[in-house]
Design goal:
Helix content: 25-40%
Structural class: alpha+beta
Shape: globular
Strand order of the largest sheet: 4-3-7-6-5
Order of helices and strands: EEHEEHHHEEEH
Number of strands: 7
Radius of gyration: 16 Å
Distance between the termini: 42 Å
Strand content: 25-35%
Number of helices: 5
Length: 151
């Protein structure tokens, strides 16, 4: 799902797959993997605007594709977790390949949603950062269980 009024990411950010074939965000293989993933996936601009989200991500956070494409990741992030997200973005932009961690989003219904997030950066052939890629799993039930065990 591309955001309305957004063009797909350029093929300049292509990367060879295991067979050596170029795989870019607008390739059919990438689209199939992205859309069919059982986890939430989102492609973000460097300013953290949502550019592309899959159906799993939409279901997880309760927003439609169109609604998310009018927001940034910070817009749906729990206030106490915003600075952690900013720090992760900075480390990715300065060369870290991938970052993981738990954080809270705010579901459209207003309730916090715990997620385990893996973020990486997509770079072009010159090594310049072009997009963030997020892979997100809902871990709310696990967090509830951990909290209950602590009590």
């Amino acid at each position: 799902m591309f955001c309305m009024n957004q063009s797909p990411p350029s093929t300049a950010s292509s990367h060879p797959d295991a067979t050596g074939a170029e795989l870019a965000p607008d390739d059919a293989i990438f689209r199939e993997l992205f859309e069919g993933a059982p986890i939430g996936m989102a492609l973000l601009a460097l300013d953290e605007r949502f550019l592309r989200v899959n159906a799993s991500f939409c279901r997880m956070v309760g927003y439609s594709n169109e609604e998310l494409c009018q927001r940034t990741a910070e817009d749906i992030t729990f206030e106490d977790d915003i600075e952690t997200g900013r720090q992760l973005a900075k480390t990715l932009l300065h060369g870290t390949a991938r970052g993981t961690g738990d954080k809270r989003y705010i579901h459209k219904n207003g309730k916090p949603l715990w997620v385990s997030r893996t973020a990486s950066i997509i770079r072009n052939e010159k090594g310049e950062a072009e997009h963030f890629l997020l892979m997100v799993e809902d871990i709310s039930e696990r967090k509830k269980s951990e909290e209950a065990l602590e009590k």
